[in-house]
Amino acid sequence: MLSIVFSSVILALLLTFSHKFLTGDGDFTLLSKGKVKRESFQDKQVGELVCKIIAFHSSSYCYSSIRVHIHMCCKLYEVEVVLIILLFLHEGEVLAKQLATLGAKLIISARNEPELERVKNQISALNLGKHGPEGVEILPLDLSSGEDAIREVVEKAISLFGGAGVDYVIHNAAFERPKSTALDVPEASLKATLDVNVVGPISLTRLLLPHMLKKGKGHFVVMSSAAGKAPAPGQAVYSASKFALNGYFHSLRSEFYQKGIMVTVVCPGPIETSNAPATSTSSKEKRVSSERCAELVLVATSHGLKEAWISYQPVLAVMYLVQYMPSVGFWLMDKIGAKRVETAAKKGNTYSMNLLFGRKKE
């Protein structure tokens, strides 16, 4: 009798596990965390001081007026400031709106200043968050402009909101060209991809890191890709840039973790955006919505996860195989590689199991 009960429990657990694996939109650790921890992005009260002896630290913000009676106290708050690099504008815009709702102060950056103004105006019009229009600053930034130009942007960023500095950086920039074989990538595309996806984010991080170390805290959120965890036939240079990004930021975290620096590397698969809707290539191609992706990014960040995967199947399964059974994972990618490039050229579904099981053309 006990053996039957035990077997039933094991079977139920296996069925639950299989269902979550087949229908989930993220890795098990990420999905187990539940909701976003709102307090991670909200202003935090750190004490009260008599106004006569208040000394404003560069990372503090005082809501009370200085012109008060000597015996009155004011509350001191640490302002949670998030710098979002919005080069993938739609995804970055959704992130910005969710962060504003959570109570963060935002610095939004991209090359297109009118688009930044539009995002700021939308956040204001929707009355998101508690800070109003004063809670969003725009800061034009071109990650391919070189270190000197990026340094100017960094100095401006840390001076905003009364010199509060930057607590979170969300690296959301990405440069990607249509899929092709590694042989067909022109030099200009190679250079542009590495400049925007690798060199720019590293330069920005190197320049911001000393300021975070002075504050004793900082959190880099890196929007990488499933192509940074597994081979991506047809996207060799893009995949290389994401592998490089993963290696750099995981190494950086290991070097500075004990000094308060955190890193969360997020590896999304296909995401539904304004540029790539769910039905753009095939009605069977299932993409995670931008809103859900942003929510999971903030879950991973607020819970301090070091890495998170966001995708439906079969991409999620491929990442698991390459991570934990690399021989099988690489065999699988070798089987579908050439066919994936051909399918991409015809604007077909490059995330379909038919790439493996579909019939070969004679």
UniProtKB/TrEMBL annotation:
Signal sequence segment: 1-20
UniProt KW keywords: Signal
Entry-linked InterPro entries: NAD(P)-bd_dom_sf, Sc_DH/Rdtase_CS, SDR_fam
Protein name: Uncharacterized protein
Protein source organism: Lactuca sativa (Garden lettuce)
